[in-house]
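Try it yourself: sequence plus pyridoxal-5'-phosphate, in.
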Amino acid sequence: MSRVSPRSSLRAIPSVDRILRELGDIDLPRPVILAIIRRELDSVRADASKPDGNAPDFAIDTFSRIRAAIDDLRRARIQPVINGTGIIVHTNFGRAPLGALVAQSLVEVAANYNSLEFDLITGERGGRGAYLEHNLAILCGAEAATVVNNCAAALVLALRHFAGKGPRNRVIISRGELVQIGGGFRIPEILEASGAELAEVGTTNRTTADDYRRAIDDRAAMILRVHPSNFYMEGFVESPALPALAAVAREAGVPLVVDLGSGATFDTRSLGDEHEPTPADTLARGADLVTFSGDKLLGGPQAGILAGSAPLVAALKKEPFFRALRCDKLILAALQATVDLLLDGRHDEIPIRRMMSIPIDQLQTRAERIVTALHGSTLRISISRGRSQVGGGSLPRTVIPTVTLDFELVSPDDLATRLRLGTPPIIGYTAADRFKLDLRTMFPHQDEQLVAALRAVTLPKSTS
Ligand SMILES: *Cc1c(COP(=O)(O)O)cnc(C)c1O
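Structure, out:
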């Protein structure tokens, strides 16, 4: 680096036009590229005019700064990634991916006019999502069901309706259920933000039906039970069975709302010992209303489903707040297709359900094929057994045996970074000094891309 006077170094800064020419084709909108160039040029100029600023070769340095800024921004775009983490419902990767049939019905509705709020029989305005609501109710064994943006919204709607106005605003909840779910979703805070007043009963580990009963007064608005999705308690623990809690609610004349979160519509004991109550079970055992997510164990798009008694669901839909939380046509189309597949028993069309049940020998075969395809690369790769997880804050104790590709490296983090920054980005995990990719969460149709990406990061450019 030579020292140059600020004045001459400023002159060495290339022009916007020259930079644009040298950058060539970039798949970002031109105003975005221009904004990056101007921002970087400003900061280069600011550096150059510092009295003791070391002036490097500005033409080259400016150029590489701009390239790096553009690459960073392109990586911030939402894009497909290959999930090698073994976490099936991964919150950071958009939870449940949609299957081909569901994606196709979404595209068809998106690209055409559609009957969102139009009754084809009468030729008049129709109920938004009426078919979906009808079928969802059947899936949940409920009299009625409706849909909002996510489960948090479903809970807020229920809280506002039952406890958000007037003097009857106390929500009775066990101290063991005042939990945090994921980032920034805390039950007590949601409750208070909805205008409800928290009436905590019992203790962290033990709450009885009598604890609930004693908390009932003329300001009691509802009993809320929150399913402990992402954690479990063991040892000296107790909470009333749902029918006993439902009896307390009925005696008191307040609704029992159960926030299930994950919304498994199948018996999760097929995966392990953990039992996740289904919406249908929960309603049959006495809940008046259940809330759950569309994109956790249901395997559909992001949505919050409310199911329960017909008058309750009808009343919730009349809340002014409902209008602010409603889903758009794309979500309704994708959820409608998902629910129909579930009702038809076509679970293999739901990617997360298929992933949960792929036999280990199929994963082993794919792993062997990938290793063969990488023959001649410098990677030291082996196949081993691992444990996939359901994820999405569901079934925290359930592990599904799986097959992993293990990369032996001096620095596993280095491979992790290069794969993450590749196209498509591939994300795995590091354990016992190995970088690992779990076959269960990587789609078979991505195997070729995976092989190409692995070759690209390990072979010299000329042979890749
Ligand atoms: C995940 C979860 C929620 C939040 O669901 P979103 O769809 O992410 O809003 C609420 N309650 C429980 C019990 C959950 O597990």
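One thing you can check immediately is this: The pocket of pyridoxal-5'-phosphate is lined by residues 150-152, 181, 185, 226-227, 229, 259, 261-262, 293, 304, 393 (CB under 6 Å).
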